[in-house]
From TrEMBL:
<dbReference type="InterPro" id="IPR052155">
    <property type="entry name" value="Biofilm_reg_signaling"/>
</dbReference>
<dbReference type="InterPro" id="IPR042240">
    <property type="entry name" value="CHASE_sf"/>
</dbReference>
<dbReference type="Pfam" id="PF00563">
    <property type="entry name" value="EAL"/>
</dbReference>
<dbReference type="InterPro" id="IPR000014">
    <property type="entry name" value="PAS"/>
</dbReference>
<feature type="domain" description="EAL">
    <location>
        <begin position="655"/>
        <end position="909"/>
    </location>
</feature>
<protein>
    <submittedName>
        <fullName>EAL domain-containing protein</fullName>
    </submittedName>
</protein>
<dbReference type="Pfam" id="PF03924">
    <property type="entry name" value="CHASE"/>
</dbReference>
<dbReference type="Pfam" id="PF00990">
    <property type="entry name" value="GGDEF"/>
</dbReference>
<feature type="domain" description="PAS">
    <location>
        <begin position="349"/>
        <end position="421"/>
    </location>
</feature>
<feature type="domain" description="GGDEF">
    <location>
        <begin position="508"/>
        <end position="646"/>
    </location>
</feature>
<dbReference type="GO" id="GO:0003824">
    <property type="term" value="F:catalytic activity"/>
</dbReference>
<dbReference type="InterPro" id="IPR029787">
    <property type="entry name" value="Nucleotide_cyclase"/>
</dbReference>
<feature type="domain" description="PAC">
    <location>
        <begin position="424"/>
        <end position="476"/>
    </location>
</feature>
<dbReference type="InterPro" id="IPR013655">
    <property type="entry name" value="PAS_fold_3"/>
</dbReference>
<dbReference type="InterPro" id="IPR001633">
    <property type="entry name" value="EAL_dom"/>
</dbReference>
<keyword id="KW-0812">Transmembrane</keyword>
<dbReference type="GO" id="GO:0016020">
    <property type="term" value="C:membrane"/>
</dbReference>
Amino acid sequence: MIRLRAVLLPLLVLSASLCLTWVVWNHERQASRKELRSQFEYTVSDAVGRVEQRMATYELMLRGVQSLFAANGTIDRERFRRYVNALNLDANFSGVHGVGVIEWVPAASKAAHIAGMRQGGIPDYTIHPDGQRTAYAPIIQREPFVGVARSSPGFDTWDEPVRRAALEKARDSGMAALSGKVNLQIGASPDRRPGFIMYLPIYAAGKAQDDLTQRRANIIGWVYASFQMHDVMASLYGEQPPGISLAIYDGVEPLEAALLHRASEPNSRRAPAIISANEYLVVDGHDWMLTMSASDEFRSRLGRNAQALIAGAGTGLSFLLALLSWLMMTGRERAMRLASAMTRELRENEEKFRAIADCTVNLEIWWGPDGKPRWINPSVEYYTGYTVAECMAMPDFARTLIHPEDVSRVAPDFKKGLQGSRGEDLEFRCVRKDGSLLWLSVSWVPISNQRGDFIGFRTSGRDITERKKSEEKIRELAFYDTLTRLPNRALLLDRLRQSMLASRENKVCGALMFIDLDHFKTLNDTLGHDKGDLLLRQVAYRLSNSVNEADTVARVGGDEFVVVLGNLSPDEAVATSQTEAAGARILSVLGCAYELNGIQFRSTASIGVTVFKGEQTSTDELFKQADLAMYQSKERGRNGICFFDPAMQTAVLKRAEMEVGLRNAIEENRIVLHYQAQVVDGNYITGAEALVRWEHPERGLIPPGEFIPLAEESGLILEMGRTVLASACAQLALWAASPSMAHLSMAVNVSARQFREPDFVDGVLDVIDRTGARADRLKLELTESVLVENVQDVIEKMSALRARGVTFSLDDFGTGYSSLAYLKRLPLDQLKIDRSFVRDILVDPNDADIARTIVALARSFNLGVIAEGVETEAQRDFLAVAGCHAYQGFLFCKPLPIQGFEQFVSLFSSGKRAEGRSARNAGRNVGTGTAS
């Protein structure tokens, strides 16, 4: 009985499965036929639609040509030619082989018509074919002209019945009309192909066309376009779709004589048609018949060929199910034995795994294929604060423990684990029972049984919280300023690039603000660096609260901050106004008092701004522009905003170029000295002042006013000062050997920066010793700016040099930091009245009083006094009356090169009054520069 059931059940399963297969196969066959019919009907409809749409396009084109003549009622051949050429038929109207004009010529006007055409540029024009007719319709022009007889000028289309029928229909209806089938010859080829011609009538301008009589009376011609049907269809389809045969006939019968187009030649081998259809088209009142058939290749392109697959697969599955039912009936007992053995083995392996996992410090979890934990090791309590029992009781254990912000990152790998794939190691935050956070690094490993079946996956996690804290600390050190917690230069550059990219994409402006605190060094030097750091932190806080959250505030070093403003107006003028308002707000906030551990302190800032749009300018260039603007703000008096102007860049480039030139001039000994005499009582030369000049290879002699300020700023004044002092001392040594020059002293200007050098005294004494110059003939002229800082150091340096005989003159006295205390303490030998007082001494009472006061001060402190810039006898006389008897200026001589100066001294010192006057005049005329 058991054996019988083991055979009957598989046979029953096989029979049922085969019946089901037949049902499905039959349904698929019916559906395939229905879809084939639907797709074929769509193809036929598409073909008809394409033809109708293309013919409407041709008619629209031809109506444009018709309107060219209808406007004035005459036929202008030249205008027609230009118009057709402008249509560019090959590119815009595929399939059109030519467009032409036909003129209506009654028999009585034939001779006049021929004469007019010959006069119009066709000397051999005639109407052909010959013969007497009541009227003619000759082609008078065709574009493009191809020289074919039936398309050439003079061919009478009225003589051909097919064309005449279409011409009459167009004339009588006033609408477009198609000719019947005509065989057209295109170009020089002797072959003729089936085609058709479309005509549109041209009526006399202003004449009525309301009825048939009026239209026949007022006709003056036609415009036409000729087509080969093969080319028209090729322009619609290109190559014929595979599996489709298409033919078009003139009329409503599929006669071979009426065939206009066939996709393949009649005698070519074609697969038998499985479906076919006929469609009738009416184009401009003319009947066409379109026939289409499809072969098996068309059906195969539909992609629905499942009948054979269903039959094969269904039959195979039927036998497979029968086999499985037989195995099930005979193998149940065997399967139960196998399952018992596998269960026992699984339990043994699970016990081993638990014994190992319980000993590890990692968080080990075994997940089932349903995503629920099957086993958790005791380490879970250390990691999460929950016991194993609490974790197993949670409805969604994973989502409870993973930080909500990290769930989206973990979910894909968890899903991979459920699918049996090994996931990438993940790092995420775990929310412990007490609410604290713990960073975990978790790896995922699938678990399979001995047969390789997926039965779950295992995760192993370890605590990486300390490592994450270290990484965060490193990141902060790399991208944030340790003092203010603001972004540093590295992060600022990244934020600036992002702002520039957003500016380009959103077509808006942005701005870069460079902020420098005014007199911050003074704060550090007077109150200490701890107060300076406290100020920087407060400035950072105020700046961060003065801009939008999307903007960036960064510290780039020292007392320098940068603000990046984004999302400003697209209009640069409006963006500039917005930036100026933001800068004014920042200046106002930074100008409020600061509390520095009990000390009230006020500070100001100088801001340089450059506005950008997109990424047209590099980040480095933006920083340079903002930096230039900031320094311009400082030069304007600080506590202000200055926007970058390209003129600043030009000035900086010019200054840089001049600095390079000056440096080269010092190295190449093109810094030379000119000498201006210092005279006592107008008759006796006591010395000379050495005045520096730059011999430029292109600009010639450059006065000191153009390069001394640059030398001061760049530090070149130090090297230049040493060079000038060495040259002056060497000249003093040479004069000492000349009886006529040995009595002269040499005045040399010393800059404040040069004087403040620690080795200044040693440098001067070294030059004196090397050159052999007499120290008592060397006079150093100091400006009052030397006295601003560390007066005691100034006194010590002057005293050390005076001990060797060097004398000192206070230059430009009265223009700077003049103080009686300085005059009393400093070891000076002479005061020098500045040229600004001497210039207006005769017309400005204040200048006159100042000059008298300086002379009186010098006398009271037992100092010598000399006036510079003396240019007239009257100025000298005034100074002499005031008690000043030493002079320097153009009245005596201009600054001269050494040869000219020595010649001047020789003449001036001859003792002869006439020669003295001559020498004085020579000194005025020989001069090549201005006094410094």
